[in-house]
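User: ok so my PI wants both of these folded by tonight, can you help

Assistant: No problem, let's get them done. Here's the first:
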Amino acid sequence: MTWRLTLAAAAAALVAGFAVAIAEAQGGSATRTPTTGVVVVTTNLAYQGGAAAGTGIVLTSSGEVLTNNHVIKGATTIQVRDLSTGRTYTAKVAGYSVSRDIALLKVNAHGLKTAAIGSSAGIKAGDRVTAVGNAGGTGTLTVSTGALVRLHQAITVSDDSGGSSRLSDLIETNAELQPGDSGGPLLDSSGRVIGVDAAGSGGSRYQQSAGDGYAIPIDTATAIVHQVEAGKTSSSVHIGPTAFLGVEISGQDVSGAVIAGVVQGAPADDAGLEAGDTITSFGGQKVTSPTSLQLLIRQATPGKAYRITWIDQFGSAGSATIRPLAGPAQ
């Protein structure tokens, strides 16, 4: 079975600072509820002509917010809404991991209420849990209860743009997850975050059928957060702005990356690339598939010059020097 990412598509600090915030949140409060430190995330997908919604977990009072990468993938703008105060903030992507489906956002805020961050070490099947999220992308928070079913699970997930990926070492729960819950917290019986809600079973592209859901262990997520905060980029963690060529890549299984569309006025358009062309190299590195091009672009620096080569739909070779802009996260 293929599982649906729980992102709702709308038709329409320092490491030390983070550690202090966790300690403060774990101190507990008589007024703490399951929704404390949980925010609504909405995005504008300008290059796709749409919008999307998800959920976020507040890590620091100064504005670090944890969510899924697929919540902010392709987003040209990101808004974070604190329902407890009614305030909305514009967020920037500090860093993300595609393979782990984790992203760290930063908003310019002070005094945000933080979630109580726990640990996924020691959890076991049968433990009672609560999932919190922006179910249905309605802009409100809902709560679902259940139990842990299994640990260390792997699933194939698909998103609303037709892509798919493999997620592993997940927590399986029968607490129902719906579209829009992505990025929300999975809480233990003490109200501490043990996971980041990520996926639920889906019967169709825009609907969610009842069934078990999956969450990313919070220890996995916080390890990525610490890496981003430390500025340590790697093959699996991207930090800072993402390079943008302005091409939509076809899913065709060929040697190279076939262009399905080009954004008018984007660097690829200025370089003369067109729909139907097959990109064969970027920055001196061979492009063997759409995935390899995505990785090369993720490693590229916006504004830096790169040599790009391609074969057009008539078999003629082309090349140009291209300077990517700063664009949406992948």
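One down. Here's the second:
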Amino acid sequence: MPSIKDNLRGVHERIQEAANRSGRPASEVSVVGVTKGVPLAKVQEAIEAGVAIFGENYVQEALDKIEGIGRRAAWHMIGHLQKNKARDAVRFFDVIETVDRHELAEILDRRAESEDRMLEVFVQVNLVKEDSRFGVDPDKLLFLVEDIAKRTHLRMMGLMTIPPFFEDPEKARPYFRRLRTLGEAVRLEGLVGRERMEISMGMSGDYEVAVEEGASIVRIGTAIFGPRVHT
């Protein structure tokens, strides 16, 4: 069975190839190791292999891992964030990738102020048009981004999306292309808290297509850690 180090090397090689196909440097793409359901020992192994950013879907699971390994890596919140978890999320996560409503932005801003920190956030965009999915509607995206830009303790970093699952990753391409287009529109409005607009999209089954379409962050779980352990 390949080691996490071998898996990570393979991921970086495929990112390099995808970046070459799209005429961009692979250095523009960061890998977030998704640790949902991954035991602490494998997270530690991933750190030793060179993973510098981890993504968690649930606040409590992240806290357990952070307490177990310390602040040896950056942590991104990549799951839906409930209001009652905002305080812990602000205290322990470096980045929140799933801001999708004005109410959550307001709460995070207040919590960040109480912690005397500037919190980096992404706006999650719902490109699927399903009520069961989280994310702001593309038609309302600029209103939310403008709201975040006015907040004193939030820094808008970019956009994030989760397309439907397809066996054929090519079917996800239109969703990735759409997010890149929306990101360009936001960048032109001058509402991003840094020079480069970050685009977080692509997971184990489709990250190569996402890189070809402009992803700067890919969220990889199974391709690094192997099949998830269900408990």
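The CA atoms of residues 199 and 215 lie 5 Å apart. The two ends are 22 Å apart (CA to CA). Good luck tonight!
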